[in-house]
Amino acid sequence: MFEAAIVLLYGLVAVAAMAVTLLEGWANHDGLTLHRLAGLFACLLWPLTLLVFILHGCITRLTRLSRPMA
User: Fold this and answer.
1) In the chain, which end has fewer C-beta atoms inside a 10 angstrom radius, N or C?
2) What is the pLDDT of residue 11?
3) pLDDT tens sequence across 17-64
4) Is the pLDDT of residue 69 over 70?
5) In the prediction, which pLDDT does 62 show?
6) What angle do CA 35, 14, 27 make, to 5 degrees?
7) Distance of CA 30 to the CA centre of its chain
8) Of 52, 56, 51, 58, whose CA–CA distance to 13 is shortest?
9) CA distance 27 to 22
10) Distance between CA 46 and CA 53 in Å, rounded?
11) What sections of the protein cross the membrane (predicted)?
12) Buried-state track 28-57, b at ≥16 Cβ within 10 A, e below 16
């Protein structure tokens, strides 16, 4: 259940970012350029990098707490 909620949240954030990118291109009458396609691809990846940083912080905090005091 928790994993499904995380995947849903990730998908919603990615879709919202992609929608903003597509609307920006539509408003500028640019169409699908190479830069816009790269931006759409980045919309799928940036939440993943945020997740990596959050997990890294959690793991670092847990390993610090589990070390014996010197």
Assistant:
1) C
2) 86
3) 889 888 888 888 887 888 888 888 888 887 778 888 888 988 888 887
4) no
5) 83
6) 50
7) 25
8) 51
9) 9
10) 11
11) 35-59
12) eeeeeeeebeebbeebeeebeeeeeeeeee
Q: How far is CA 44 from CA 62, 69, 70, in A?
A: 29, 42, 44
**Among positive and negative, which fits the CA dihedral 52, 8, 16, 19?**
positive
> In the 8-state DSSP scheme, what is residue 33?
-
In what helix (H) or strand (E) does residue 40 lie, and over which residues does it extend? Answer: helix 34-66
How far, in Å, are 6, 52, 55, 62 from residue 58 at the CA level?
A: 16, 10, 5, 6
Structural domain total, the chain = 1
Question: Model's pTM, two decimal places?
Answer: 0.59
Q: Rounded to an integer, what distance in angstroms lies between the CA atom of residue 27 and that of residue 21?
A: 10
Nearest alpha-carbon partner for 13 in 47, 50, 38: 47
